[in-house]
Amino acid sequence: MSARFIHTKARGQSIPLIALLIVVLVGAVGLAVDVGNNYAQQRNTVRATNAAALSGMNAMIQGGSDQNIKQVIQQSLRSNNVDGAYNDINGNGTAQGDQRIINAYYLDAKANFLCYVGSCGNVPSGATYLQVIVNGDVNTYFARVLDRPTLPVKAQAYAARCSPVEGVYPLGVQSSSLDTRGFLPPQNQADLPYYKTYTDPNYPGGLTQRRVYINDQANSPGNFSFLRWQAASSGGNTTATVDMFAGSGNLANGFDEGLYNSKTDTYTWPDASSQPPMVNGKVVYPIKPHEINAGDWAYANTGVALSGNLKTEIQKHITNKDVMILPIVKPAVGTGANATFQIAGLAAFYMVGLGGNGANSYFDLVYIGPANSVACLSTPAVTSNTLGINGNVFLKPRWGQPQNGQPIAYEIIMDVSGSMSWNFKGQGNLSGTGAVRQCEAFNGATPDSCPNGGGDYWKTESERRVYVLKQALAGSGGFIDNMRASDTMRIISFSTDSSNKVKVDTSTGWSQDAALLKQTVMSAGKVGTNPYLTSGGTPGPAALNKAGQILQSSPPPAAPNGQAYKHAVIYMTDGVANIFLNGQTNLAKDICPEYGGDSRALNTPRCQYDPPPTYKPNVPNGMRPITAMVSEAAGMKSRIDNLQLFVLALGQVDVLGLDEVASDPSLVFPARDASVVSLVLALIQAKAEGPCIPNTGANWISHIDQAHTASSALFNLPTGVYGYVYLYDASHTPLNLPWTGPGADPRGTVKNALPITQDGLGEQLGYTVPVAQGLAPGNYSMSGYVAYKAAAPDGDGQSRQYDQIKPGLTTVQEMPFTLSPSEVLGASVVLDPLRLQLKQDATVCP
Questions:
Q1: What predicted TM-score, i.e. pTM, was given to this entire model?
Q2: Could you say which of 315, 344, 643, 688 is the most buried, measured as most Cβ atoms within 10 Å of its Cβ?
Q3: What SS3 state is found at 545?
Q4: Domain 404-690 falls in which CATH fold?
């Protein structure tokens, strides 16, 4: 009997298959929906990351602080619907909900990591690129059934400084018309009515305005010349010229540098009398082909008439108040259509007027500022293994100021903070009667806790700083008693109140009444009825700010003998300035984190100072207190002729920074002990009345005109050379450097000397090593000097050598530096400015 297989139907057999297919179909649909959503989110993240990197670089170019750049990046992402939280330097960033994780870094020109944006304190020197990385997860909808609740998104962008291409117009302005502050006054008296200050809501402080005239060679101050971007002669015809000025210009279509050789299709260096950039003995010009940069050469566009469509297009820029970026050029090399101009830089201008005909055509321009770079998306690239160097040089002139015995208006700026109630060793007593407390400590030591500040005053009243100072001023035979009959005085006291707000008391005004002045001194800062008890903090910047306002708005009345008063300001303090101009205390946790914001940070000058040139404001508080105090003092000295500013430093206060507050470093007088305060005040009085007093310029300068050029007989400097910078390697071996000054090399065997010359925009003092003879990255040191004549009428006519380097609060004879890639793309490093002073003990008065 054979077996038979019987086929039967069972209901529901297809249900598992259908269910499985439904899962697969839902998964496929979910995958399509979620992947599509993820793709859209990824595209938006890429777009937002690019925008954030550009925004951060724009903030960096505009001088924003490290914290400001961090905020700008985050806000830019948020404006593009990407909410993000920053990773910390340990990689422990935490995103909430749909937030993305942000990583942002400063990189140098070779893409080496410098530091995390927002954690650097200051934007690091050498920062060339910003790298922004954004990553996170996107929640899914249907893909969850496949155990994929999220999908990743990630984007990365590099932003760099690039030459602008939009809003750049072919109008060359002569470099000798400008310095770093703007237009220089015209030499032609007839043009003085057109040299003025321009103001608008964007620039309430004012900008310089000047009329410039057409000159195809642009070879003298006050000239401009039309340029063309293309080498072809047709690049300067009427149609092409109009196109270059229309709208935002057409520089993006290309720029040709140098003289074009049609046979070899190359561009060559136009100036046979100067050296083109070279690497390993080969010319490498142009370094960045078809991109306009400082050092490039642009073609003259001769015979252009300011009329017709050209005039119409330029007038539109005036009407629209467009910011016009124009090349700053040196005098032409060559003539006619073959003339070329070397570009010293790019700068932004407003054009507010035009007129004239033919050779008398002119533009009225307003100088806004440099415009050498804009933010762009750019991946880091290395251009050279050797590095050229460039650096600016500054000096502070110093001279002996003759005095003719004129009456003196003394402005006393007296510190009445709580520490003035301690003794000269920085000691107080707990609550004024208890245990001795070392309220101030020095050299980084940790002080005792004095929780009541001035309330922990020194119990022996006659040993308190405020007692000793007030007696030296107002006691019998003191400073006030020794004033001459024609002298006058005003007293300003400063501290903070119980709410920690700045308190500056300007007293009753100028007076020659000794009794009234003594009463004012005794009342200054007193707590209750006790003239020898004080309280509060040390808002030095606010005190100097108020003193400067008073000298300008409320000068002393005319002296009895009809002579003009000479102003002598005496700033008296026992503490490091540690309160911002806005009244906030600077705990300095960002630059002195090791102190945790305690009293050591408050009393350490470097924690309260932004050393040049890396100064960046402490957002939102502005300059740090010592920097602000120096700035206020400089403004006061600049605004008031022959003002003398003395500093009396009481107790053990660190005097670093006070040398820049005083009119001259020699006018800072420490009084470490109570016994010398009266003697020091008598010495200040004698200096103020004497026949000669040392004086130092209020500001750092970087240009020496003919009148202030030092005597060549004293320094044996070639014409056009103002001093030398000497370079050494890490072993202090002198380097063998090329001669970069004018004329023949006069150095003999001293080949490590770089000449300090004046060149470029504003004819600033500086030095350079060309890329062709560049140096390998590494550690180096430099010394140097500038010769300067303190010419009359401000100076004494003496030529002196300025050779003390001041990189921050102290001076050094030699300064180390590390040679690293440039702050801009390329192979030339811009070093920190070299600031030179006269030796502090140099004799300037006979």
A1: 0.56
A2: 344
A3: helix
A4: Rossmann fold (3.40.50)
